[in-house]
Amino acid sequence: MTSTLKINSINAWLKPSDLPLIISGPCSAESEEQVLETAKELAKIDAVKLFRAGVWKPRTRPNMFEGHGEKALKWMQRAKKETGLKTTIEVANPKHVELALKYDIDVLWIGARSVVNPFSVQEIADVLKGVDIPVMVKNPLNPDLALWIGALERLNEAGITKLAAIHRGFDFFKKSAFRNAPMWEIPIELKRLFPTLPIITDPSHISGKRSLLAEIAQKAFDLEMDGLMIETHCNPDKALTDAKQQIKPQALQELLNHIIIRERKGDVAFESKLEEYRSEIDRLDAEMINILARRLDIIDLIGQYKKENNITILQLKRWSNIIQERLENGKNLGVDTEFLTKVLELVHKESIARQTRIYNKK
Ligand code: PEP
Ligand code: MN
Q1: Theoretical Cys-Cys bridge with 75: which of 35, 99, 196, 301, CB 3.0 to 4.6 Å?
Q2: Would the CB of 25 count as within 6 Å of ligand 1?
Q3: How far is the CA of 54 from the centre of ligand 1 (A)?
Q4: Cis peptide before 236 (omega within 30 of 0)
Q5: pLDDT, tens digit, for every residue of 180-232?
Q6: From the CA of 18, how far away is ligand 2's center (Å)?
Q7: Can you give the pTM of this predicted structure?
Q8: 112 in ligand 1 pocket by Cβ < 6 Å?
Q9: Alpha carbon distance, N-terminus to C-terminus of the chain
Q10: Contact present, 163 and 12 (Cβ < 8 Å)
């Protein structure tokens, strides 16, 4: 992919001592006390360089908590004054940008829902002409690298050279362990194309849950990403948004204490290919489990139907036909016969067990 993206240098706005760039704060600014308390706790962690909070929240359905807007900007300003931490918020339109500048926000970010829309990104870029402020661009919801690069380019063409990308994972068609599939090969490819562009990993929105944060954060460093954005809240269980994924500032400190920084391997092309293969495996496994679940659902229907018609569960002839046909098919595709026999037998065993349960039900 060719691009005219011009990024001066990683040091244009990040000094080596700022790296890795750790960004933290609540998903949403909920009250003055919550903002100040969280910021004060975070200020005790040396590694945290930027305090985040959502002031306008993009919600899927209307009539939910949508952020406190301008009022919350005053809380951010106070948090900055009292802790010395620089601040960052999400902006989604020119009005947001204007207010963020009015309240001395240090860094802006554009959220995943806005990055999918080039009109929105262009409007933001247009009001930023002549303004010297760093802007971070989250990946779009859909796994479209060109769209992500396009948003960075629109800002760059408006004169913004202090840029960073935030990797927050991608919408995925089926359930997986993640809230948003990481598809690491996409940020890795971005890094390969623009080696000086800082990429910050957002384990909170990738995982959607606390238990996976540390693992994703470690992986980000193993893949040579440049920082982390992790949501923290002084009372996470009571958070108005993203309660399941937020942690207390103290838990962030612990997570950071356990990160191992390994030597950089530098072979980005190798990592990129490997991640591409791994993502494909993840997708295929999800599909395989989905197909198995659908197969078992049909087995239940058959079981019910046979029961209603008073027919025995095991239909030997049908089973031996299945085996023969499936093994033949597998052979043509290069799947080992012994292996496939074991898989089919396992599936058959489970099918019989499911039907037996249906037969035994009164
Ligand atoms: C957020 O950072 O709280 C947020 C809304 O993120 P995203 O745009 O990645 O969904
Ligand atoms: Mn959030």
Answers
A1: 35
A2: no
A3: 8
A4: no
A5: 999 999 999 999 899 889 999 999 999 999 999 999 999 999 999 999 999 99
A6: 23
A7: 0.78
A8: yes
A9: 63
A10: no
Q: Which atom of ligand 1 is nearest to the CA of 52?
A: 2
Calculate how far, in angstroms, residue 165's C-alpha sits from the geometric centre of ligand 2.
17
Determine if ligand 1 sits within 6 Å of the CB of residue 27. Answer: yes
Total H helices, total E strands in the chain: 13, 8
Angle at CA 227, nearest 5°, toward 52 and 171?
75
Q: Atom 2 of ligand 1 has which residue's CA nearest to it?
A: 27
- Residue 205 CA: which ligand 1 atom is closest? 9
Give the list of residues 6+ apart from residue 87 with CB closer than 8 angstroms, or none. 50, 51, 52, 53, 76, 77, 79, 80, 104, 105, 106, 107
- In this predicted model, what pLDDT tens digit does every residue of 281-317 receive, in sequence order? 988 998 999 999 999 999 999 888 888 888 877 777 8
How far apart, in whole angstroms, are the C-alpha atoms of residue 272 and residue 75? 41
* Ligand 1 site-directed mutation target among 38, 60, 138, most atoms within 8 Å of CB: 138
Q: Which residues contact 336 (CB under 8 A, 6 or more apart)?
A: 330
- Could you list the beta-strand ranges (E) of 163-276: 163-167, 199-201, 227-231
> CB 120: neighbour CB atoms within 10 A?
20
Q: Please indicate whether residue 256, judged by its CB atom, sits closer than 6 Å to ligand 1.
A: no
Neighbours of 354 (CB within 10 A): 17
* Token pair belonging to 271: 């990592």
Our answer on whether the CB atom of 138 is closer than 6 Å to any ligand 1 atom is yes
Domains (range + CATH), the chain: 10-264 (3.20.20.70), 270-360 (1.20.59.10)
CA of 168 to the centre of ligand 1 (A): 8
Say how many residues make up the chain: 362
Tell me what pLDDT residue 307 has: 86
Nearest residue to 27 (alpha-carbon basis) of 250, 247, 231:
231
What's the rounded Cα separation, in Å, for the pair 151 and 112?
11
